[in-house]
Design a protein that fits this description.
- The protein contains nine helices and 18 strands.
- It is an alpha+beta fold.
- The protein has a domain of 190 residues: Glucose Permease (Domain IIA), CATH 2.70.70.
- The chain is globular, with a radius of gyration of 18 Å.
Amino acid sequence: MEIQYIERSTGAKCVEKVYGHRALSLLYGDGLFKGLFSALFLPLFAHIPLFSRVYGFLQKRSQSGKKIAPFIQTYGIDASEFASHDFRSFNDFFIRKLKPEARPIVKDPRVLAMPADGRYLVYPTFDRFVIKGQTFSLYEFLQSRADCSRYAEGSMAIVRLCPSDYHRFHFPCDGVPTKARLINGSLFSVNPMALRKRLSILAENKRMITEIDTDHFGTMLYIEIGATAVGTIRQTFLPARKVKKGEEKGYFEFGGSCIVLLFEKHRIVFDADLLRNTEQGLETRANFGESLGTAQM
């Protein structure tokens, strides 16, 4: 199954190179054999964290460093952006930092910056929590009646990070964040092959929720979601301290992963190209620091 997206910088429609495509196809693909394989093995990978822990451990061993050069070549990663090339393991490469000039940050305080490199979908309003024809339970996602009521008619941005992406994430605007709240859960893949079958994965996977009192966008929820082989979400910020747009918030260790931003009603107007592409069922691949939307007057 091809995964198509729009490359924001060029407007071109592209086909994603999927890391671990064969395994994903077996676990989330269609057909009788794949259905049986998925029924037998998917619960093991998703519900038992040992698999992700062992896989993550292997990526931290020095032998894993042999994969770095072939990976860079296969996925066309621009090594000139790296802040350092001193990687002791594949995980070191995966959580790499970039040179500040590699990701210029939109300066206007009323423009929300993209929090990470990734593929974006935006939803200006919820239609009874139905996204892509599937019901999405905001209460199950947030596990808070107060938050569910507060964001019920709000807006949502979903950011999917592939293994080839820069995996540090940042604050999209100025504000004061609370301590991140952990909700333990499964570790299903967040690849579109998986989400097309069951969007509820977003409300089942392990996630961390940070409330941010922003200067121009009301109270925003910033949610990191773990996925297969991503049992670890590292927070590097200090709670209850004023942060500036672009400051690092944390990083994901190895694997694909996801970020969700939730806004109260009438707080943000998403950029037109992101809206248009989402309406066509296509993600927009863009970089950290670019414009995501503007504060609603």
